[in-house]
Amino acid sequence: MKKISKLIVGILFSGLVASTSFAGEMTVTGGATATYTISGAEQSSGKNIGISNELDFSANGELDNGYTWNYQVQLDGDNTSNDDTQLVIGTNYGTIGIYVTEGGLSTELHGVGAMGPGFDYASPATFQTGYDVSSYSNLQYHLPADLLPYGITAKVGYAPDLNDTTQLSAKGTSGLPATQNKGRNLTMIQLGAAPVDGLSVKGDIAQTDGETGIGTSGSTGGEEGISANLNAKYTMGPVSVGYVKGGYQPAVASGALTQYENNMVGIQYDVNDSISVSYNVDKSEKQVTQSIVTGAAGTTKVNTEMEQQTISVAYTTGGATIGITQADVDNSDYTVGKKEKMSVISLGISF
Question: Which helix (H) or strand (E) segment is 9 a member of?
Fold first, then answer.
């Protein structure tokens, strides 16, 4: 993993040697989405009316050696802070990206859903799906498009400090090293392919490095974090089907290991150019391995499966999309017997 991270840095700086740039142009895009949401436990639901804050400021241009560049900063949080930024350089040898909480490589979403893939669009619960470099400041390298047959793509990303989860200035630092019990850095690889018409397959694997206790004298129970996902989406005419299989083990300094096994499936039917309906079932099983008795030999596993069923309907007309989504969760937040619901009515306009 360390060799991969050094390779990314080497490619990055060798591709940017003394190149001036031509003047580019800037555009502003975004969307306005208003929602009415009812969410919470069945016996005590909360209600809210909200309007999204989503703006993308983008600029692009060309260096004098023929390389291209694209810059983007986003405003899409609860306030007007810059929270996602990227600078991407296109070369003859692939793409180099510098990202701040951007550039996701995780494939835990299959992309099937009238309003969005199940829990990712709306959920009163929190699903644990694994690591993604887009949660941190990171560097990436992507192989050139169309280099390999069957639409095969390859991308690698490296986050040098897992503390860097917010926007930093050009000379800013996080000040402290990443908390060791979640690893100090993260390396991630994504592969994809489109072997036949209508079918896309993607997979990713991510691993932390530098968790406390690994390789040190007298350490007990320390484990690096690792996650992996494999998804497939197939579209034939108006019908799309998606499936994801994933696993996730967070880094721990010592003590009980926690693992998550995820299975997500969705089906979408486009009635016509204006109306789409979808149904998603998302399952995530939490497995906690712990000692039977403190200090005694042997372990036991406690398993809890959370399941969400989501139904969505979307109607698009004249540049506007009206959506209705209903999500029902059993064992919400991996708590046995906890049931929650979420209903979302939305009006979205893109510009």
Answer: helix 2-14
Is residue 116 a contact partner of residue 169, using CB atoms and an 8 Å limit? no
What is the C-alpha to C-alpha distance for residues 87 and 306, in angstroms, rounded to an integer?
38
Judged by DSSP in three states, 301 sits in strand
Summarize pLDDT for 255-268 with one digit per residue, the tens: 778 999 999 999 99
- Which residue ranges make up each domain of the chain? 2-168+184-350
For residue 23, the SS3 value is coil
Tokens of 194: 């489109």
The residue behind tokens 């929270």 is 83
CATH 2.40.160.10 fits 2-168+184-350, yes or no: yes
Distances (CA, A) of 265 to 187, 242, 310, 326, 330: 27, 6, 11, 16, 16
The Cβ of residue 244 has, within 10 Å, a number of other Cβ atoms equal to: 25
Burial of 86 (0-12, 13-18, 19+ CB in 10 A): buried
301 CB-near residues (< 8 Å, 6+ apart) = 287, 288, 289
**C-alpha dihedral (162, 204, 277, 78), degrees to nearest 10:** 10
CB 211 within 8 A of CB 227: no
- In this structure, are residues 281 and 243 in contact, taking their beta carbons and an 8 Å threshold? no
**Residues 157-214 pLDDT 10s:** 999 988 777 766 676 666 665 555 556 899 999 999 999 999 999 999 999 987 655 5
Rounded CA gap, 55 and 77, in Å?
10
